[in-house]
What we know:
Layout: H1 15-18, H2 23-42, H3 52-80, H4 84-99, H5 102-112, H6 119-137, H7 141-168, H8 175-204, H9 214-227
Helix pairs in contact: 2-7, 3-4, 3-5, 3-6, 3-7, 3-9, 4-8, 6-9, 7-8, 7-9
Amino acid sequence: xxxxxxxxxxxxxxxxxxxxxxxxxxxxxxxxxxxxxxxxxxxxxxxxxxxxxxxxxxxxxxxxxxxxxxxxxxxxxxxxxxxxxxxxxxxxxxxxxxxxxxxxxxxxxxxxxxxxxxxxxxxxxxxxxxxxxxxxxxxxxxxxxxxxxxxxxxxxxxxxxxxxxxxxxxxxxxxxxxxxxxxxxxxxxxxxxxxxxxxxxxxxxxxxxxxxxxxxxxxxxxxxxxxxxxxxxxxxxxxxx
Length: 241
Ligand SMILES: [Fe+2]
């Protein structure tokens, strides 16, 4: 992937200068992201209470979203980034996605769990996924990096849950969850550093930063649909097995 010319004011700016200016502000943002992530993880339906259809649905909706969209989201973050090191961090992530063919890994995971997404799964996530796609298309640097940092943090913990669902579905293919449970720890840390820098640049540019969590909240809504019951959102899945 070729590099788009950087903002000339940032070329040669030492990384330590950029990302130490807003430390207390970014610490509080990291805390807020962690709080949102912890709440989301705590709201996951208990695996023992899920029916086979409940398990299949979560894997299928997750797969329906991730297989075709993650690289689009991350590419948007790459195009939006204004700090050279942010692009370098995201480029490493994208290279891994493409070289290891993570969409193919996602598809094998769904296949092995008998949870290949169908049209009902795609329709269930359509409104919230569309909102996330439109947000990504705005290419807002700090809010988009915040969304990706939040997502990488979330899936670190979500992978163990997803692996358990697949196991209960009789799957022996855990490559997707094994790979993402490990590599996304580093991705999350690096994106958090990039967020700090992008926020400093936004602040220097006189941007308010009031929409910093726009993408985070849109993606949280999408995840809530993935892990919820699309027919009866307020009800837990009955255990019919
Ligand atoms: Fe991936």
